[in-house]
Amino acid sequence: MGVSERFWASSIVELKQGYAYDAEGGLYYCLICGETFEDGEVFRHEQSGRWYEAGTYAAYHLQLAHGSMLEFLLELDKRATGLTDLQKELIGGFAAALSDSEMMERTGIGSASTIRNHRFVLKEKAKQAKLLLTILELMEQGAAAVPQFVPIHRTATQVDERYALTKDEYDSLMKQYFPNGPDGPLASFPRKAKRKIAVLRHISSNFQKGVRYTEKEVNELLSRFWEEDYVLLRRYLIEYGYLDRKDDGSEYWVKDTAGAYEPERSAESIQAAPTALTVKEQTKKGKRKLKQEPKKVVEQERRDAQKMDKTKRKQLTSEYQERERKMGVYRIKNDINGKIYIGGSTNLEPLWGKEQFQLNMDGHRNRELQKEWKQYGGENFSFLILETVKFDHQVLYDYKDVSAVEGRQPADMVRQYNREVAELTEKWIEKLQPYGDKGYNRPGGEGKQ
Prior knowledge:
Low-confidence stretches: 257-298, 316-321, 399-405
Order of helices and strands: HHEEEEEHHHHHHHHHHEEHEHHEEHHEH
Shape: globular
Oligomer: single chain
Distance between the termini: 41 Å
């Protein structure tokens, strides 16, 4: 079972703690990166010299390598959590015990009553979620045979009924398309999308996460499955979100949004990684007996790690909030027919990713742009920042600067920023006239983000 499958099969308790125990395999495993800790082994942290048994170290590993489980879950996209970006920001603030005034500054929301209303709505969602889980569990208890669905990879470009694939269906398709065994070759490449997904899912499992492949290495691996047209396999693996690559095709890797299941590790974290040795191996090295840590010491180590983790999170949050916020006008261009879309935003940094996500999910507000995105493919569109708004002061990412500007209130300054962006957007729309055959904008229509 892969990491993502274990993640989605985990209980609420396991998801909250970030690791789970596999009784059959006799090991603990991290739900984020998949690292395992075999029961009966001890794990040594090189920097501190401390030794940990597997269960304790699984919890310590989560804090050391990934930080807070809440932070990880909030990084998942809306398809996984159902939460909007604003709701995620609010939850992060509520978890950090920020005051209403601090939450107003952080989110740009204009009143404390609105903040409290959001908190109320989230609590109501929690009640509904509990009831829904209970209902579904009772439903499954009453069903004679509940079909088990194959987990959907989180980097899927568009989730729909094509992914409604049961494990029985998947096993049947594997036998049909891989008659000589899972190592291939393919009997044929399916034409129906649902069957393609099953075949591509299996082929993608042969690539290792965290490994960078050259195009030649990818071609060699895919040739084992379909020598006749391995290029087609490569294209579909990218199109369906299983693999990603550099623009020049020099490197390929297993696609993974937000680094959730294969986080990049710094040299420092690699040096600080634990070394796992069995008692028998230690004895061979001349250590007849491992010194066992008293329970109090282990608990103190855990508390110290939590304090360090909290300090690090505060530092990272502070650095994030101190970044300069870029506001201005952007252009999305259809590189095939030259048509353009002009928009404005008070937060340009993540804007292209947000636009691509909405377009890939068929949820963009401009339906003409959405139609041609599907027709021509997202790879044939480009993004460009046309102009940024110039201020006589630095605008910080979380708007903490605004109360210091001429004594103005945060809400007043945020409204001013919105007006500045809207005026600049109108200027560019007037200049470029992105209407009709020239573009996707509508006279008097949308453009503000």
